[in-house]
Amino acid sequence: MKKIIRTTKAPAPIGPYNQAILSGNTLYTSGQIAINPENGVLVIDTIQAETKQVMENMKQVLLAAEMTFENVIKSSIFISDMHNFAEINEVYGGYFNHATAPARETVEVANLPKFVNVEISMIAVK
């Protein structure tokens, strides 16, 4: 059975999907982009600020499922320009204990929703 995870502390979905689905003890999140949930404005001033907003949005989705970044077992990072990898990785890495960080892939793509520079999704387990 699946449980829909919703929080007003992360951006509302902009299509026919939910922020996350909890199935048993496993949480599957939708991709998060850098929308400020308080005002709906994209945070794209710098790649660091954009990545931080994405991670803060993801943090709120995890919290809504009573989890933290320690529960994350897999991350998928989609970026529009691999030249931004180092800056994205630095911000992303600040949210994890490096010794217990999740598995991950980082993929450069042609475009992302709203033409942002980074989108991240995760799988977490209680």
Automatic annotation (TrEMBL):
A UniProt-annotated Pfam family: Ribonuc_L-PSP
InterPro entries assigned to the protein according to its UniProt record, in alphabetical order: RidA, RutC-like_sf, YjgF/YER057c/UK114
One GO CC term, this protein: cytosol
GO molecular function: deaminase activity
Protein family membership: Belongs to the RutC family.
Protein's UniProt name: Translation initiation inhibitor
Organism: Polaribacter irgensii 23-P
